[in-house]
Fold this protein.
Amino acid sequence: MPNPTAAMLVIGDEILSGRTRDANMHHLAQELTKVGIDLREVRIVSDDRDAIVSALNALRAAHDTVITSGGIGPTHDDITADCVAEAFDVPIDVREDARALLQAHYDRRGMEFNDARKRMARIPDGATLIENPVSIAPGFSIGNVHVMAGVPSVFQAMVASVIPTLTGGAPILSQTLRVDRGEGDIAGPLAQIAADFPDLSIGSYPFQQNGAYGSNVVVRGTDGARIDHAMARLSELFPA
Amino acid sequence: MPNPTAAMLVIGDEILSGRTRDANMHHLAQELTKVGIDLREVRIVSDDRDAIVSALNALRAAHDTVITSGGIGPTHDDITADCVAEAFDVPIDVREDARALLQAHYDRRGMEFNDARKRMARIPDGATLIENPVSIAPGFSIGNVHVMAGVPSVFQAMVASVIPTLTGGAPILSQTLRVDRGEGDIAGPLAQIAADFPDLSIGSYPFQQNGAYGSNVVVRGTDGARIDHAMARLSELFPA
């Protein structure tokens, strides 16, 4: 049985403008791989309503799970929750349980729970909250879509609480063989091994080091014995 | 006049599996920003023919320019050139000028120009080559699509040679004000400034440092005087 699939939607002008580097994608990719969920696609779109809604609808139709990051804070450019409500065609308003969480948080800190902060309690109808142990303002899940914050510490906490709720597959295992020869030298035999092991994914990732070419050959799959077998073939063909 | 738009298509299982972090997106985002081209969307897809072809067709229809990275090496998992030919519905075969470049390169190094390496001379009909000063195997441009290698040093060299050929817009300028207050405190006045400067993009990017909340407010646009004006308003509202 093939593993379940996932997609990620990153909402953020700051990444597309080159101002910051995304850190969440790499984290999510690693966490999903551990539980046997196949991250098939990532899209990064700007803080634009139409772009977010149409990407979200395309991804949630094509994949078992969609995880979004970014755009759920209190400022005017945080429009993700409204876009999700629009994509699902459900109403959105301040929800009492989310409001109460935030109210208690700001009361404890002696900070004003103003209108901007109340925006973070706006949750589409029918969603369930995702806990935020870092800064309280919750994410939410609706249908197969999980809406998380973009701040990496918060994103990671939300991923940790959502992943156990997802249906995983067989964990994806991998082994890597470093070959100190150019890809062009190894491509022929490598294609033969890939053909002999159609149940495995065999990738070649070239590098250059001190002026010499090499490649990391990565064998991935769910059957450890088959991976061992393919690695043995590779080691024979490309001895260190 | 709005600036031209661009999209990027990253082809690579190794990023989706969490094995490596993409470095090319950040570089391209910064280079496009310098010449006033608005990077609107990035998609990362796996080494899968249907996924590549359909993403490419969607992006090239929606944006002025599309830049791809990855999948043009000599190994069996390098299928980008074939997918581009399929998307444009044109034939693909070994092309003489590309073949001659590679032949001379391997002759100079005393290496065999084998069938795997000849695959790197397969170019869709009607494309023009993109020079590769690092490892010779060329990229290519067809229609509004520019196909580049995934190895960062090669990708960067190809970006440097293609960008001068693109129609740019007014360079996008930006200034950042660091505000040592939580986003919830500044969101109200910030929304007012964003409304007063509809020609600028005003984003708020929260951070946490030593347990305290802060935000970087970034003002972007093409008119330096307007940005100065907005920054002066921001500095008045949120003094250091």
Q: What stands out?
A: The longest helix of chain A spans residues 49-62. Residues 204 and 216 of chain A are 6 Å apart (CA to CA). Chain A has two domains: 5-165, 173-237.
